């Protein structure tokens, strides 16, 4: 049998692979040069890409890394207004716009870190510095320092015209604006008010929003009166009558006697066949129609004035309130003190001492006491 050739056998020994050194020696010199060039060019592309990326992204990273807050303490002065119901971001935006804080987010972050101070911020106009640290601006707002807000105290029993004068003096809004506002369709008067604002301007101390209009201020006062009605459970259909009675109570009584005066009013309105003939005969209604303050009692001439508000000439209640009564007078009108009194007189206007009587004879004795006081005090 002929021996097979080893080169044709699958078992023939294969040559060993070249060593790493041999492989390096096997690369032609021309290819080595091209590899180096490609490597250099590739590195250049990477460097160029990095330069380009830095140029594009560096402003973004710079903005990210830049402080969003001033270091403070700030300088100069600027006024910032905080309105009723402003959120933290709304206040921060106003501060940023005025140049007080660097960014809205800085103030929002400071407020979030100290919610107690944030909750203490009240509406008003604040004098702050420019370029303050957000936390410092927050602290100053919360403290109430440099806070300016129109404040006015309305006393019980004032006429609407007197209230306009007070409001104008304290807020700077012209009196004519209030007079115009009193007839505005924007007033939030109930239908039962019949378009008359007298009686609905609730007396209390107010802090009005900065730059609020005459209509806005009157509406705030009207809402207070309506809130009082809601507290006492007075239906809208009864509100005007309650205010009318309450205004007479306010104009006539001392603080301790309001419920008794309300009782006298109701008793006299029912006494249509008796000595009063349903007439109230209240001096406060005469003062209202003559717009005179300070005089005790009324003159014969004034009591003869023809007017539906003259309760000496006309039976029943006047057409509407004669002033703007407070909470105590309104409550007295809703809940008169039980009794049969038909007369009362303030025997000492200085102390407000008032005496009540069920009979005319007793009332005459009380009037005599008042006349003695008047003679002694030249009223």
What's the short story on this structure?
This protein has helices at 20-26, 29-65, 88-97, 104-113, 115-119, 134-143, 160-171, 175-181, 214-232, 236-252, 258-270, 283-290, 300-303, 327-334, 360-377; strands at 75-82, 124-130, 147-148, 151-153, 205-207, 343-348, 353-357. With 379 residues, the chain is mainly α.
Helix and strand topology:
Blueprint: H1 20-26, H2 29-65, E1 75-82, H3 88-97, H4 104-113, H5 115-119, E2 124-130, H6 134-143, E3 147-148, E4 151-153, H7 160-171, H8 175-181, E5 205-207, H9 214-232, H10 236-252, H11 258-270, H12 283-290, H13 300-303, H14 327-334, E6 343-348, E7 353-357, H15 360-377
Antiparallel strand pairs: 1-2, 2-3, 4-5, 6-7
Walk me through what this model shows.
The protein is mainly alpha-helical and 379 residues long. It folds into 3 domains: 75-148, Dna Ligase, domain 1, CATH 3.30.1490.480; 151-232, no CATH class; 239-377, no CATH class. The protein has 15 helices and 7 strands. The protein has helices spanning 20-26, 29-65, 88-97, 104-113, 115-119, 134-143, 160-171, 175-181, 214-232, 236-252, 258-270, 283-290, 300-303, 327-334, 360-377, and strands at residues 75-82, 124-130, 147-148, 151-153, 205-207, 343-348, 353-357. Mean pLDDT is 83; it is low at 1-14, 20-27, 37-41, 43-54 and 60-65.
What is the quaternary state of this protein? single chain
Helix content: 40-55%
Computed over alpha carbons, the radius of gyration is 44 Å
Q: Which shape, going by the Cα principal axes? A: elongated
């Amino acid at each position: 049998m002929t021996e097979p050739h080893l080169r044709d056998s699958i078992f023939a020994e294969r040559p060993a692979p070249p060593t790493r050194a041999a492989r390096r020696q096997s690369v032609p010199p021309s290819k080595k040069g091209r590899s180096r060039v490609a490597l250099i060019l590739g590195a250049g592309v990477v460097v160029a890409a990095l330069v380009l990326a830095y140029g594009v992204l560096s402003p973004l990273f710079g903005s990210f890394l830049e402080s969003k807050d001033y270091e403070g303490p700030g300088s100069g002065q600027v006024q910032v207004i905080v309105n009723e119901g402003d959120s933290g971001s709304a206040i921060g935006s106003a501060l940023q716009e005025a140049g007080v804080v660097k960014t809205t987010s800085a103030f929002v972050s400071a407020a979030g870190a100290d919610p107690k101070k944030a909750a203490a911020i009240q509406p008003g106009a604040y004098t702050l510095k420019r370029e303050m640290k957000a936390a410092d601006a927050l602290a100053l707002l919360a403290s109430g320092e440099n806070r300016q807000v129109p404040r006015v105290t309305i006393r019980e029993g004032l006429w609407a015209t007197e209230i306009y004068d007070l409001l104008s003096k304290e807020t700077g809004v012209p009196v004519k604006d209030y007079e115009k506002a009193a007839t505005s369709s924007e007033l939030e008067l109930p239908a039962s008010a019949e378009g008359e604002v007298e009686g609905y301007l609730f007396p209390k101390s107010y802090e009005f929003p900065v730059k609020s209009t005459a209509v806005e201020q009157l509406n705030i006062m009207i809402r207070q009166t309506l809130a009082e009605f809601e507290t006492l459970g007075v239906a809208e259909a009864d509100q005007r009558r309650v205010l009318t009675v309450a205004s007479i109570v306010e104009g006539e009584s001392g603080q301790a006697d309001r419920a008794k005066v309300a009782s006298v009013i109701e008793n006299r309105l029912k006494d249509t066949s008796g000595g009063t003939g349903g007439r109230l005969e209240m001096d406060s209604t005469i003062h209202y129609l003559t717009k005179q303050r300070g005089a005790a009692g009324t003159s014969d001439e004034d009591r003869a004035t023809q007017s539906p508000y003259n309760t000496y000439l006309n039976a029943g209640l006047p057409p509407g309130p004669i002033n703007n009564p407070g909470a105590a007078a309104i409550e007295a009108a809703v809940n008169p003190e039980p009794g049969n009194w038909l007369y009362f007189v303030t025997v000492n206007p200085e102390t407000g001492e008032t005496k009540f009587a069920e009979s005319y004879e007793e009332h005459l004795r009380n009037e005599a006491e008042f006349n003695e006081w008047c003679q002694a005090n030249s009223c």
